[in-house]
Design brief:
The complex is a heterodimer of chains A (423) and B (310). Chain A has 423 residues and is α+β, with helices and mostly antiparallel strands. Chain A is built from 18 helices and eleven strands. Helices cover 46% and strands 13% of the residues of chain A. Chain B is mostly helical and 310 residues long. Chain B has 14 helices and no strands. In chain B, helix 9 runs antiparallel to helix 10 (214-225). Classes of the chains: A alpha+beta (423), B mainly alpha (310). Chain B: It comes from Bifidobacterium amazonense.
């Protein structure tokens, strides 16, 4: 009896073990066509009802279609995308930014929508469609996602910090260019060196683009931001650092660190968004008392960020997946989503809606109008080939250049070499 | 007696139409099958796959082709590898002496079985059970530019500008070492306590009769009695020091310090080997270098142990 029990337990454990290993699989309901739609961190109190209504409407308009909505948490989303893609389990319609989309497009996982749905181009802002259009090494030129939502915003500044540091800003002629900020560095550093930061410490690739640096060659096969203009740009930051215009801890700071520093009253300029005014009003009332606003500071066009809806190239129901992705990104549905999510539309003409162009005199309204204007005229500067690993490398190299360990040219050469090896 | 039992079992099996010898062979295998599958799936196969990957230029989404020793050659001209290898090695050199000596001293101090010593044992062990994220946040708040330490120093007028614990290349590294020591002391103290409990009490009595005080008893009884455990602690602490990740990751906000100057091997492997653009071939090669270094550490300490036993 005892032996039988032992055998049963051992056999059970072995079966459970193998069962556990074999438990990965998919199922589909019969009689209906099921599409899997994946979003990034959008299943929550704020957005769930929006997506449930959206899906219900699509299912009503398309009898026999069932949309299975899955949402992934904010952290490690790119890891999840790559794991799914490597396993051949990417959903039919997937929410992602241009950078992961470029990598997946290169791996042949995403559908070229310029071929599959060429009529869609006219429905989107040219800058957005252009940013979703990739070309590069080992990649057929094409558009690999429908632009979904955009974000941009004005630059905020703290008048009290600037005044204490010997800088007076004319409210009728505030700084609007990166060169204006560089010109303030000496005075700022002389009066406030080590105490306050003039702006965020380490420039991103988008900052290079806004300064007018050519980031890539025309074929999009190599990075070129180690050119003379790029070196000149980094040299400005080195000069600002040497003048004491930002503190050492800014060398390690991220975007959230920048916001923390500005809200804490220790940073003079911050690039924000249309809804930053309310955030500062609530969380940093002292800063709000001295808050002023100007256009996104850029020598050329302001920067925008974009999220897209991509279609899996191996989807069994590509036409339906395209139809659903176009439905989610159509003007009406974008507008409804943007109002909830505090973002901006990529569809043609939607930005002219009254919601984005309030007429009152509050700073919130001014920030909204400025943001809308930037959406009309902005550019998505970050090349999709510039991966997060390249961003890390750029930050590390520039930090070393600021500290005088290497020159601006050496920092950019090393970054360009690193990124070109991985392009 | 054993024979009778076997016979009886065999009799039962025979009665059930089962060959007792084959049953005796299968059952043990059924018991070990789950762990064997587990080890193969999650240790052995990934390990051999890592060796294979290290000779390819594969990325997460591309199998890659055989490139021979290219990854290993590239590593030695990679500034980030040099920094990471140096930092991890320095971590071992600086951490291990503290990890071997301090917990032993603590264990000797709290070995006495009294209530107050129970309290101290618990207090010293508390950091061990804290999550590394909590430890990281705690120390970030202490060491930050506006943190507790700089605030106190400023209040005492010892400094006028904050000490850059989290932004200076060396201060960040040494701060992380201090956190590692603080959070690891209790664990090794517990190992030493188990060892001290096994030292023959008559040795202390004899030493006491001979006029030895506490300090001399420590050097002449406790220390020799813990020699083998010290080698074990040296091995464990050097392996965990070379694999340091959490402390530097948390204190640097995930960046590996200003300009990546405080990167460690594990951080570099994570950066290269994860994400949608992961270079699995190169990170595999980094992993193999780490494996070889850890193997050498184990080998050296095994030799030391053998010699000390002789």
């Amino acid at each position: 009896m005892k032996g039988t029990i032992k055998k049963a337990v051992a056999l059970g454990a072995a079966i459970a073990m193998m069962g556990g290993l074999a438990a990965c699989g998919t199922s589909s309901s019969s009689g209906t066509t099921e599409l899997k739609f994946q979003t990034w961190n959008l299943k929550n109190e704020k957005f769930t009802s929006y997506f449930e209504d959206l899906i219900a409407q699509f299912e009503k308009d398309n009898p026999g279609v069932k949309i299975k909505w899955v949402d992934q948490p904010a952290d490690n989303y790119e890891d999840k995308l790559s794991t799914d893609a490597a396993a051949g389990e990417l959903p039919d319609v997937v929410d992602m930014g241009p950078e992961p989309a470029y990598t997946l497009a290169k791996a042949g996982v995403l559908l070229n929508l310029a071929d599959a749905a060429p009529e869609a181009e006219k429905d989107f802002l040219p800058a957005a469609w252009s940013a979703a259009t990739f070309k590069g090494t080992d990649l057929e030129e094409g558009t690999y996602g429908f632009p979904w939502y955009l974000n941009s915003g004005p630059t905020f500044y703290n008048k009290a910090v600037l005044s204490e540091c010997g800088i007076t800003v004319d409210p009728n002629d505030p700084p609007t260019k990166q060169d204006d900020i560089f010109a303030m560095a000496d005075t700022f550093g002389k009066n406030c060196g080590g105490k306050y930061a003039l702006t965020s410490g380490i420039p991103s690739i988008q900052d290079f683009g806004m300064y007018g640096v050519q980031l890539m060659n025309d074929d999009r096969t190599e990075f070129t931001f180690n050119n003379a203009k790029g070196v000149e740009f980094v040299q400005h930051y080195i000069d600002m650092y040497n003048a004491g215009a930002f503190t050492d801890d800014m060398l390690n700071s991220s975007t959230s660190g920048e916001s923390k520093s500005f809200n804490g009253g220790s940073q003079a300029f911050m690039n924000g968004n249309a809804y930053s005014v309310d955030d500062i009003r609530k969380n940093a009332p002292k800063v709000f008392e001295n808050l002023a606003i100007t256009d996104f500071i850029a020598n050329t066009k302001p920067n925008m960020f974009m999220e897209m809806l991509t279609v899996n190239a191996t989807s069994k129901h590509q036409d339906l997946a395209i139809k659903f992705a176009r439905f989610v990104t159509n003007s009406d549905n974008q507008l409804a989503f943007d109002k909830k999510a505090n973002v901006f539309p990529s569809s043609t003409g939607t930005i002219d809606d009254d919601f984005f162009n309030p007429s009152d005199d509050t700073m919130d309204a001014e920030a909204m109008r400025m943001s809308a204007d930037q959406i009309r005229n902005g550019e998505i500067w970050g090349p999709p080939q510039f991966t997060s690993a390249c961003s890390t490398m750029l930050r590390e190299e520039i930090a070393q250049a600021l500290q005088g360990k290497i020159t601006a040219k050496e920092a950019l050469d090393a970054t360009v070499k690193y990124c070109n090896e991985r392009i | 007696m054993a024979k009778t039992k076997t016979k009886k079992r065999g009799g039962d099996a025979a009665a059930q139409g089962v060959d007792p010898r084959s049953s005796g062979r299968i059952v043990p295998w059924l018991f070990v099958l789950p762990p064997i599958l587990w080890i193969c799936t999650f240790s052995l196969i990934p390990f051999f796959n890592t060796i294979r990957l290290s000779f390819t230029d594969s990325t997460l989404l591309k199998p890659g082709k055989f490139v021979g020793l290219e990854n290993y050659v590239n590593m030695f001209t990679d500034r980030r590898f040099q920094t990471a290898f140096f930092n991890s090695s320095l971590y071992v050199v600086c951490i291990v002496p503290f990890m071997v000596i301090l917990p032993l001293m603590l264990a000797a101090l709290v070995a006495e079985k009294t209530r107050i010593m129970n309290f101290f044992r618990t207090a010293f062990y508390t950091p061990v059970i804290m999550s590394s994220v909590v430890v990281g946040l705690l120390w970030t708040n202490i060491l930050d530019k506006d943190g507790l330490l700089n605030g106190t120093f400023k209040a005492l007028k010892w400094i006028s500008t904050p000490i850059p614990f989290l932004t200076d290349r060396w201060l960040l590294l040494f701060s992380a070492m201090a956190v590692t020591i603080w959070s690891g002391l209790g664990y090794y103290m517990l190992i030493y306590l188990a060892n001290i409990a096994n030292i023959d009490g008559t040795l202390y009595e004899a030493a006491s009769i001979d006029g030895c005080g506490g300090i001399r008893q420590f050097f002449h009884v406790t220390l020799p009695g813990c020699r083998v455990t010290m080698i074990l602690v040296m091995l464990l602490s050097s392996m965990s020091a070379f694999r340091v990740f959490g402390e530097i990751y948390m204190l640097s906000g995930g960046s590996g310090g200003v300009g990546g100057a405080d990167l460690t091997m594990t951080m570099l492997i994570k950066q290269e080997g994860t994400g949608i653009n992961a270079r699995t071939g190169y990170s595999g090669a980094l992993g193999m270098v780490m494996f070889v270094v850890l193997g050498c550490i184990i080998g050296i300490e095994w030799i030391v142990q053998r010699r000390s036993e002789d």
